[in-house]
Specification:
mainly beta; four-stranded antiparallel sheet; single chain; Immunoglobulin-like; signal; 2 domains
Length: 253
């Protein structure tokens, strides 16, 4: 009889503490731009229990960058939802049996290591109380810059340079959204500059122009052999967004 009562109590206890599936939508949004999704490789999301650092869920945001008119052109009132079922996000599904304080970590853009930002926030999850819709939105500041020419560790003959060595870089918002003169993401107020170093010493600073969408160009004079480094940086004083890329190359006879 006692064994039967004990068994019943154990069964009741097991039902009482059983975990409950709880859903949390996580989205990464580029500062002054749109959501980070499939077109740029997504953002990597990790949801951790803050007490023991246990990973409760992890994955990549997938989907579109969202509705441009709504996100960038429409005044947003309180409780306006910026996303729909096609907008990039990661749906974390966790099993918890009590209110749990979690840390949401976002690594983004996941496939662009030179521009990658790690951002996080924390919140309580309550068993069975889903957080959906826009969900938790983590802001990712910056620009993605890729220097196209010169190439990394390229050996360039001084004779081939002639009137100057071209610098070309591709730059987009952190969501991959395009940058161009007069566009939604207008390059006109942005400062994009190439810094040229020879053997570790700065020898020139070259402002770069934006002749076509996402492409920035400049030209530097190179008259001596040596080891060179080019740093391209971007700065938007209105938003505080910044970005940097570097390459090294060698000039020979």
């Amino acid at each position: 009889m006692k064994k039967s009562i004990l068994l019943i109590l154990l069964l009741a206890l097991s039902f009482t503490v059983s975990a409950t599936e709880t859903k949390l939508m996580v989205r990464a949004k580029a500062k002054d731009a749109k959501f980070i999704g499939s077109s740029i490789g997504g953002a990597y999301v990790i949801v951790r229990n803050t007490v023991n650092n246990q990973i409760l869920a992890e994955g990549i945001t997938t989907g579109s960058t969202g509705n441009t008119d709504l996100i960038m052109k429409t005044p947003i009132d309180r409780n306006t939802q910026l996303t729909d079922d096609k907008t990039a996000g990661f749906l974390a599904v966790v099993d918890i049996d009590e209110p749990t304080f979690v840390r949401v970590e976002v690594i983004s853009p996941y496939n662009k290591k030179n521009a990658q930002v790690r951002a996080s926030t924390e919140l309580w999850l309550i068993p069975g109380k889903d957080i959906l819709g826009d969900g938790v939105v983590v802001e990712i500041p910056g620009f993605v810059i890729d220097i196209l020419t010169p190439n990394t560790h390229q050996y360039i003959s001084k004779q081939s340079i002639g009137e100057g060595l071209d610098i070309r870089a591709n730059m987009v918002m952190m969501c991959g959204c395009p940058i161009e003169k007069g566009g939604i993401w207008d390059s006109t107020p942005m400062e994009v500059v190439a810094i040229l170093k020879k053997d570790g010493t700065t020898v020139a600073t070259i402002p770069m122009d934006n002749p076509s969408r996402n492409i920035f160009e400049g030209r530097m004079q190179v008259t001596e052999n040596g080891y060179y480094e080019v740093t391209v940086y971007a700065y938007d004083s209105k938003t505080g967004n910044t970005g940097v890329d570097k390459v090294n190359y060698v000039v020979t006879d």
